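Our collaborator T.R. sent over the components below with a one-line note: 'Predict the complex.' Nothing else. No constraints on interfaces, no templates requested, no preferences about which chain binds where. So this is a plain run: every listed entity goes in together, and whatever single assembly comes back becomes the starting point for the next discussion.
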Amino acid sequence: MIGQVFHGFGTGAVYAALALALVLVHRFTGVVNFAQGELAMVSAYVAWQLVDAGLSYWVALPLTVAVAFGAGALAQRLVMRHAGDAALIMTIGLYVFVHALAAQIWSSALRTFPNPFPGGPLGIVGPLGVVAAVLALLYLVIRHSGAGLTLRAVAADPRAARLSGIRVGRVHALGWGLAAATGAVSGVLIAPVVFLEPGMMGGVLVSALAAAAVGGFVNPVGAVAGGLLIGVAETLAGTYLWADLRVVVPLAIMLVVPAVRLSAFSRVRA
Amino acid sequence: MSAVTGHPTGHPTGHRRPAVGELAGDRRRSWPYPRTTLGVAAAAAVLVPFVLPPYPLYQVTLVLVYVVALLGLDLVAGHGGQVSLGHGAFFGIGAYAAAILLWLGVPYPVTLPVAGLVAYGLGHAFGRPAVRLSGVYLAVVTFAVAVAVPPLIRRFAPGGAMGLPVRTPGAPSFTGLADDQWVYLLVLAVAAAAFAVMRSVVRSRAGRSLAALRADPGAAELLGIRPAATRAHAFAGSAMYAGLAGCLFTWTTGFVAPESFTVNLSITLLAGIVIGGLGTVSGAVVGAVVVTFLPAPGLVSGLALILVLAVAPGGVTGLARRAPALFRKDGP
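Returned assembly:
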C-alpha cells in the first residue's frame, strides 16, 4: 500500500510537470493547449536522439529543454498567432499535426529510453525533486525577472500592456516557450516508464488536464498538488480495483472540481 | 479578434463590417434561391438509392449519418462558440445502445429514441458541471470523456474488444426495396427531421440565447439569459444528436467496435465541422463528406485544420460565400 502510494507520487510528478506547462500557457495566453503533450513527446524524442548520438544524459537534458523552448515559441509564432478566436481548435490541429509528423519521422516503433533514476527510493524522489526544482525556477522567473513582469502584465491586460510598449506577440511566444520547456521535463521523465512512442503522452495529457483543472488552470501550486493527487489515485484505483479504471480517475476529478470549488487553489495574485 | 491578437477581421463591435462569410457562423444571406436549392437537393437525395451501386450508396449513407452528428456538434461549436471533444464518445454510446438493443432482439425502430435519450442523459450529466466553469472547461471535460469511453466499452459491453455484429434493418416486403436502399431512406428521413428540428431550435428563443451568450456573455446575462442552463441544454441536445447519429451508424454498418469511437473520431468530427464551416447547415454537409473520406487524423487533416483556421475561419462554406466578393474589383 505504502509502496503503491510512493509509486503514485512518481507518476504524479510527471502529471504535475505537464500540468504546470498547461497552466503557464493558459495563464499567459488564455488558451488550454491540447498540443502540450505532443510537444513534450517530441522533446523526449529529441533527448533520445541526443543520447543516442553519444551525449551524456545530463548534457542532453538542458539541450532538450532549450530545443523545446524554441519549438514552443516557434509554434506560437508560426501557428497560434493566426488562430484568431479559435485558438483552442488550433491547438487541436497542432496536436494532430505534431503527432502525425513524429510518427513519420521516428516511426511508431517502441523505443527504450535511458532512466536516470533506476529503481529504489531514488526512482520516486528523483522525479519529485526535478518537478520541485522546475516549480522553484518558474517562480523565480515569473516573480523576480523583467521577462516575468512583462508576462504577468500581458496576462493581466493585453491591451494595456501593448499600449505601454510591450511586444505582446513576443511575450506570448515567451510564454509558449517556457511552457514547452516545462513540458519537455515531463516528457523526459515519463519516457523511461512507458517506452518512447508517438502515442505515449495520450494518457498523460488527460491526467495533466485534470491536474491543471484542480488549480483552475491558473495556479501552479494547485496544478502540482492535483498532479500528485491524481498520480496516487490512479495507481491505487489501478492496483486495488481494476486496471481500466485508471482512465476514469481524471474524468471523475474534473467532474468533482466544479462542485467543490477549490477556490484556495484557483486564485492567484496578478 | 482584436488588435492585440492581430486577427485580420477586427473587433466584432468595431467600425469595419466583416464581409459575408468572413466570420464563422455568419447568418447573412448570400445565396438567392434557398428554397429552390433545398427542393432540388431533397429530390436528388430521394433518387440516390435508385441510381447508385451498393458501395457508393453505403458511403452516401455514412455521409448522412455524419451530417446528423455534425448538425449536433455545430450547435455547441458553431452557435454556442464552445468546443466539444466528446462527440465521438456520444456517437459511440448511441451506436452501442442501438447495437445492444438489436442484439437483445428489440425491433430496430425502438433503438433510435433510446439511443438519443441515453446520449441526452449522459450529455446532461457531463455537461452540467462542465459549463459552470469557464468556456474552455467543456473542451477539457469532454476530452476526458472521449478518452474514458472506449476502455469502458471494451470492459462492459457485450462483444468486448472484438466488437458486436448486429442485424441491420431489413426492408418491409411490400416496398420491394433492397435492404441497403431501405436503410438509406430511413437515414435520410432521420437526417431531414434532424435538420428541420435544428433549424427551428437555432431560431427559437433558446437558440438565440445561445448565440447571444457567444457574442457577449456579460450583456446576455444582463438580459436575463442563464448561461449555465442554456449551455448545458445546448450541450445535452447536441450530445443527443451525436447519439442518434451513432444509432444510424449501427443501422448502416451492422457492426460496432470500441476502436471505432476513440478520441480520434471526436477530433475528426470537430475537424470536419471546422473545415466545412461553423454555424451553417451546408458546413455540416461539407464536413460530413470530409469526415467520411478523410478518415483517421494525420498529417493531411492536421495541416488542413490549421490552414483553414488561419486562412479561412469560415471554412469551405465561408470561402464559397466570400467568393463573389473576392472577384469584385474593390475586393472583399
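Summary for T.R.: Chain B touches chain A through 49 residues (CB under 8 Å).
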